[in-house]
Structures are given as structure tokens and as C-alpha cells.
Amino acid sequence: MSEATGAPAGMPLFYKAPVPVAIERHKDWKVKQRRSFAYASGTNAIPVVLEEFPVLQGHYPLVFTNGEQPSVVALVGLRPQENLYLEDDGTWKRGKPIPAYVRRYPFILMETPDRERLILCIEEDKGVVGPDGEFALFDGDQPAAAGQDALNFCGTFNQSAFQTQAFCQELKSRGLLTEQRADMVTPENKRISLSGFCVVDEKKFNELPDEVFLEWRKRNWIGLVYAHLMSLGHWNELVEATARRTAAA
């Protein structure tokens, strides 16, 4: 799997140089009603949170990253730095839900230098926000609805991200994540391989002790595992979309 093109080391996916939202700097800035999702063009994997599983599993393969702290992502492409769900005009593919991580941009909560609190920051991407937008960040010297909505959205996303991290870590600690790779051959006989991801071992999942299964059911995790497993049926959609794009190139 890949990271976004040009993303500085240590920065979250899509973000390059976010700055704190401040009335002195952003008094006249507005969020654009019709945004370009071009910032999401350089990745084939989008981070997702637990609440999105029921919707996203019907459209994208949901898989886990392979590492000490696994996370869950929606695959949007098989080749590095290729998003098959982004159209040439910067719009998202019609009929496909847009992951919350994509919709959160250009806003993000970041720690203050003393790490005592989180503040709302913004990537100053003129394709999404700027003086020529429609929804103001400030109304006089107070946050406008768009600014408050951004803060609330980021706060909710952060809480969901912590819960998602706990879920992923539990899967790993129980030994349920198994590394996989995907291979395909295009009509032009070119081989494409995708590695660095994991899926839940269904056999091991079904062998969980009863007390663990009951605890997971209380935490609404059982349905999430099934949603993940069902989402893997969308591999063929990615393969077919990759073949079409390759043929059109």
C-alpha cells in the first residue's frame, strides 16, 4: 500500500503544512461548496474508523495495515499512488461513499507544542478552502457554523480513531491478523502486486473462546469483523477497474 505523493515525513496522509485556524489569518476564509478531491489522488488506501464499516463494506475492501500498531483502511486502488475512485475532474466516483478521513480534510486536530491540548488546524489548500469559498469560518470575531462544524467533526473523528485503534490492536494481540498479498495480470500481460496488508483469519476468529466472543459482542466488534470479511468480496471490482484504466492509458 502507499502514502500520498509529496506528503512530508511524519505528517498524516494528505497534509503537508497545516496551521492553527486563527481569526487573524483566516478571518475571510470560506469552505468551498464544490470541492476538488485531487488531494486524495496519490494514495490507494484511505484510513477508516469503526462507525464507517457498515456503509463502506458494501463498496471497498477493508483491510488492516501490517505493523506493530495496525490500522484499518479502505482500498481504493491496487497500484501505488492510484485512486480508482477519483474522476479526472477531481470529483469522487458517483454512487460511492466518501470516507470520513477524506471529508475531514483540510481540517485536523493537532497537539499544541506542550502537548497539553488539541487545537483545530487547517491545510491551506485553495482547492478546498480560501477567500473565494461559500461557507465562512468566522462570523465577526466568533466561529461561524462551518468553523464549528469542522471542530465537531474532527473531535468526533478523533474519538472514533481511538476506538478503532483499540479494535485493531485487539485483533493483533489475539493473533487474528494474517498477512496477505494480491496479484493480478492485466490484459497487456503486466503483473500488478499489492502487499503489506492483513485480513482476519476466519478460522481463528471462529475459534475464539466463548468469553472473548461475548465480550466482543458487547463492544459491537463481532459485526465489524463480519463486515470486514464481507468487504473482501470487492477485490474483483478493483481488479476490473484497474484493467479498464490500464486499457484506456
Structure description:
With 249 residues, the protein is of the alpha+beta class. The protein has one domain. It has 8 helices and 13 strands. It has a 5-stranded antiparallel β-sheet with strand order 3-5-4-13-12. A 3-stranded antiparallel β-sheet has the order 1-7-6, covered by helices on one side. The protein has a 3-stranded antiparallel β-sheet with strand order 8-2-9, with helices on one face. The protein is globular, with a radius of gyration of 20 Å. The two termini are 22 Å apart. The model has no long low-confidence stretch (mean pLDDT 92). InterPro entries: SapC. It comes from Rhodospirillum centenum (strain ATCC 51521 / SW). Pfam families: SapC. This is SapC family protein.
